[in-house]
# Entry
Amino acid sequence: MCLLSMQCRHRYPGGFELDIRLDVDVRFSALFGPSGSGKTTILSMIAGLVRPQAGTIAVAGQTLVDTAAGRCLRPEERSVGFVFQESLLFPHMTVKANLRYGERWRRRKRRSVSFDRVVEVLEIGHLLGRYPHNLSGGERQRVALGRALLSGPELLLMDEPLAALDAALKARVLAYLERVVAEWDVPTLFVTHAQADVRRAADQVILVDKGRLLASGPPDEVLTRREPLSWTDAAGPVNLLRIERLEPCGDETHVRIGEQVLHLPARRPAGEAPHFVQFSPSDVVLSRRDIPDLSCRNHLVGRVRQVVRLDDSVFVAVDVGQILWAVVTPQSASDLGIENGCEVTCLMKVHALKFVG
# Structure
């Protein structure tokens, strides 16, 4: 069954027009695109905060909007939970009261979600007696997520809930969100500008720009398209390697990528595996042969799987057990004979690799 079906048109007085058609059938989807592309408008239409001028919206088989039939359910009639960039908790209510308010929105046919289990999974039991002004940014977002979850939604909408958080808090809150999706199997549509968040969490990426759908599919497929939107960051695609087992070794940490060893900084990330290591394609040096006796400790051998040629740079996807990206000049790509299927060695300094969760 399609989890979300949406076909809507809406024109604003200033000239911006949204003309979008979405079909979502995976549990965790990311809406990705530049500011002003229509991402928040899409979420607002699904939640009932904006009424489209024409179109239909259905969630889990329930028709929320059908403008031709004159049907448009009020927000409280929709089985949808919404978490905003700003948590929007009620400042005069304790955390417990904010959470209980979410339960008041639960309709009889919605999924059953236990208050105690939400508190346990999000680890907010010690916060129940506090007020929002006494919470950190990450704590507020966890409470907002819990409040939305306790409404028993068939679809969870999240509008850049991590944007205001620093890198460490962002990784922690994202881990909590992943727990929620796994625990309650609740479909989630997540708006973000961060490639790393998309690559880490999303099963599907919905790429939008200027109110139009450009592409939809798995992150590694959509985020490596050559369209300008996918490559607006000068660094190109973000490298994010998933690591399971950490082995301390002197002033380094070692992990295995297939049969190869990846050398990482000694600082170990907090929390349980999996963890993620992030770095830029510009931190990767390519060679057609291994070069010993270099200060670069990481020498990962792999095969080229994709080459994206731009005007002044060439992005190269290398399969070393996971896909990582390097960027070289067109002349370097030519001199090295870079093409699909060729074997290369990826050289990286230890301190270029950063734990992100």
In short: The mean pLDDT is 85. The longest helix spans residues 167-184. The first strand starts at residue 4 and ends at 11.
